[in-house]
Amino acid sequence: MSLSVQVKLPDGSTYTQPTGLFINNEFVKSIKGEKFESICPATEEPIAAVYRAYEEDVDVAVKAAREAYNTVWKETGGVQRGKLLFKLAELMEKHADELAGIEAHDSGKPKATNAIFDVEESANCMRYFGGWADKVTGKSIPLGKDKFAYTLHEPYGVCGQIIPWNYPLAMAAWKLGPALAAGNCVVLKTSEITPLSMLWLANLIKEAGFPPGVVNILSGFGKDAGARLASHEGVDKIAFTGSTATGQVIQQLASKNMKAVTLECGGKSALVIFDDADLDQAAKWAAIGIMSNQGQICTATSRIYIQDGAYDKFLQAFKAHVEEEYTSKQGCPFNDTHVVGPQISQPQYEKILSYIEIGKKEGAKLLSGGKTPASLTKGYFIEPTIFADISPDMRIANEEIFGPVVACGRFKTYEEGLKYANQTQYGLGSAVFTQDIAKAHRFASDLEAGMVWINSSNDSDIHVPFGGVKMSGVGRELGEYGLTIYTQAKAVHVNMGSKL
Amino acid sequence: MRYYASLPLSVKVKLPHGIEYDQPTGLFINNEFVPSISGKTFSVISPSTEEEITHVYEAVSEDVDAAVDAAEKAFKNSGWATADPSQRVSGLLKLADLVEEHAEVLASIESLDNGKSLMNARGDIALSAAYYRSCAGWCDKIDGRNINTGSTHLSYTKREPIGVCGQIIPWNFPQLMLSWKLGPALATGNTVVLKTAESTPLSALYLAKLVKEAGIPAGVVNIISGFGKTAGEAIAIHPRIRKVAFTGSTATGRHIMKRAAESNLKKVTLELGGKSPNIVFNDCNVKNAVQNLIVSIFYNSGEVCCAGSRIYCQSGIYDELLSEFKTAIEAVKIGDPFNEATFQGSQTSQQQLDKILGYIEKGKAEGATLVAGGERFGTKGFFIKPTVFGNVTEDMGVVKEEIFGPVVTITKFETVDEVIEKANDSEYGLAAGVHTEDINKAVDVSNRLHAGTVWVNTYSDFHTSVPFGGFNQSGFGREMGTEALDNYTQVKAVRIKISPKSA
């Protein structure tokens, strides 16, 4: 029986939105039968109500995943796992427009300039990891005549995955791709703010041919469903992307059965511009780094430090570029010319506005934006906002705002720039602009960050590992590292003749 | 050779089971089929019927030049090597899908041209498609290393493609050998000029259509039909081919290596002959061992480089095994490749037939005992009965030399040390089989055998992720597995001084 509703999108098209929990390749009601609504952030109107998974539903999903692992997936070789991922990638590309539409409506990402690219990247991610599936190898280790050893890179078994609302599809792809390629079964909880696109994708997962129970998708809230997944004794690994505060809770909950933990948490990434940088390019990349996705990026380069000599010139170029390419292109996500959509929710909207007030109170200079756009009073819209003349101790220079608000300040020397860049508790992304190659690579080496962009920002790539140091997280996603982190090494010692 | 001034670039061929298809006859250069510059063609025979199938255009050195020009331009300009590797991923994935879509036609062409049973041919095609798919997954994962040499430098390596690669493949597994060559070369960003064997040019030309349909840019893959002495030689000595990969006889491999060295020191990888030992211990599972013996020497009519062509059977099990083996041989169905029940098809050519029959005579003359077979099967088509020689001594020609047909010797042995010595007493070292239920013995014997692949309780049991290649004069370099990528890449080390600026 199909649990679904018809949803009409702003472009006039309608689609069938599944509302159930996706367990064992079927959509089912939650045990309690309770639903919650997903709101469109551009209109503040509800889109659809979906079933809410509570702890008991998590238990059902974990059981299904375990059964699938023990009876089917464990025996499914890498070649076949790869084939299924390739098929899923193909189906995602075939239905790219539909997926982009659902994503845009539920998350506020402009469809033509944002959501469609997320769908493309998600499909590529499935395909990339599909290519790894038959290439998971351990080592053989020679130890002389009487012994030899080899390692098996085994999957964990059942992995719990908790994803955020800023890139619903892409975050799911970054998690599902490597987990499945490595041979795990998955229970994935979407964010309660953006449950819709993954439920629709579940149809494609089934169509691609993944056996029942290998991928299970639950809509639900962190404090019950998420917590249950993180502490579940039947789950061998938990992977979480979200706030640092929640990441800390997850890490503690995971200790219940010592499950493996990977965390992609918050950031306050610094973008450092030296005097000799190409300022025009720096301005454009800096804008991408904080104004893309409405500033809702964990690796947003939300602090910009500009060397004295370039300070005024950069800010002038930056302000002009942001106002021309972002501020003036803000509005309904289904208008193809729009680049900036709404913030994701009322709480986020209020939080960002409060930080803007804090910034003003702290004495930072407001160069651009700083409020709700006059013409967009419905929906959680906030203008791209630039603060300048910050001092490094300001709250807006240290705390993650997670919105289109950037704090700019100046620095004198390499050492001072480095000190400011490294001062926060975070260490996710970072960027450095300079034409001096030696300086660029030295600075990259000196930065306390999981990722450094030289002469770009937020230019991520599925082939390259992604993750943070310090309070930004544990572990790496994407690239070969992303695959390895879903395996554990078992050493097998073979006694070839050593007798006691 | 006949000069066939107006051989159409595509001819209709009707297969014995009714399917009719369009067979390209030209040289595949720059994604187009073209006649040879001279107009020369040669005849292609069906070895199971001895009848002519068609003519195809014959490439000689001037055609090789044209192909190299195309490959070189494609390497420099098409983006295949330098652009986002996802283009290569998509091309190879699409090729894999197309091979599967056209599997029945490809298998049928293979059986017609090579004489192998349709059963065997279908297996080859399935493996080829799987290998293209596996290579597709490698394209965007050719990583180098970043090496920590201290804070004064940034040191890293890149694995770069070599450039235009020449590839020469044999006639025993035309499609499969094609995939083992094209797959890793293309995945790593090279462009190729590939010469098929003159006995079996047809299925590769059909695949060339699929290469184009897969969206692989013009000039990246060039496939030419021709002879070793002319086209093959031209590849081996070509000054703008930077690497040659060859699968075939050890004698020809040696010649190619010489030519490669003399010309421009092009890199060489060789997959050559073998005389692989198949060792059966007293504690084997006899039923399974017999099945594996059948596969190891009679699969593909014994025309397999890694065929287990010397059986060593421990004395305690010898009589039982030989008796079971003979019974199993009687059940081997040999005959028309297009009969669904056929296991063993024909040998690939008159030349091969004569050579194998010659070795059978030699075996008899050397004093070996004919235990099974030993003669031609039927009067039409190059079929030979599965043949077993017993009472052989290690110095006999039939024990030392590669026969490349359905002819196997069987020798009794007593101890592990004895059989390892005999097994390793060969200039070859391609593969070996070990049949025992004692796992420690299996690992120990595997450790001591000088062979590139050791099969335990199985044989000719390939997987796309597992490397294959030889020791000693069976060659060097590995195909399949991650190791295959090493054949087609060269390491560049970059060391950047990044001392602090004084300002």
UniProtKB/TrEMBL annotation, chain A:
InterPro entries associated with the record: Ald_DH/histidinol_DH, Ald_DH_C, Ald_DH_CS_GLU, Ald_DH_N, Aldehyde_DH_dom
A Pfam family assignment: Aldedh
Record keywords, A-Z: NAD, Oxidoreductase
GO terms classed as biological process: polyamine catabolic process
SUPFAM superfamilies listed in its UniProt record: ALDH-like
The organism's place on the tree of life at top rank: Eukaryota
Keyword Cell membrane: no
GO molecular function, one term: aldehyde dehydrogenase (NAD+) activity
Keyword Secreted found: no
Active site: residue positions: 264
Name under which the protein is recorded: Aldehyde dehydrogenase domain-containing protein
Residue stretches making up the Aldehyde dehydrogenase domain: 28-492
Automatic annotation (TrEMBL), chain B:
Membrane-spanning segments: none
Keyword presence, NAD: yes
Pathway as given in its UniProt record: Alcohol metabolism; ethanol degradation; acetate from ethanol: step 2/2
Occurrences of domain Aldehyde dehydrogenase (ranges): 34-494
Short name of any one Pfam family annotated for the protein: Aldedh
Alphabetized UniProt keyword annotations: NAD, Oxidoreductase
Active site per the UniProt annotation: 271
Keyword NAD part of the UniProt annotation: yes
SUPFAM superfamilies: ALDH-like
GO cellular component: mitochondrion
CDD domains (alphabetical): ALDH_F1-2_Ald2-like
Cross-referenced PROSITE patterns: ALDEHYDE_DEHYDR_CYS, ALDEHYDE_DEHYDR_GLU
Molecular-function GO terms, alphabetical: aldehyde dehydrogenase (NAD+) activity
InterPro entries in the record: Ald_DH/histidinol_DH, Ald_DH_C, Ald_DH_CS_CYS, Ald_DH_CS_GLU, Ald_DH_N, Aldehyde_DH_dom
Biological processes per GO annotation: acetate biosynthetic process
Protein purpose: Minor mitochondrial aldehyde dehydrogenase isoform. Plays a role in regulation or biosynthesis of electron transport chain components. Involved in the biosynthesis of acetate during anaerobic growth on glucose.
Entry similarity comment: Belongs to the aldehyde dehydrogenase family.
PANTHER family xrefs: ALDEHYDE DEHYDROGENASE-RELATED (PTHR11699)
Name the record gives this protein: Aldehyde dehydrogenase 5, mitochondrial
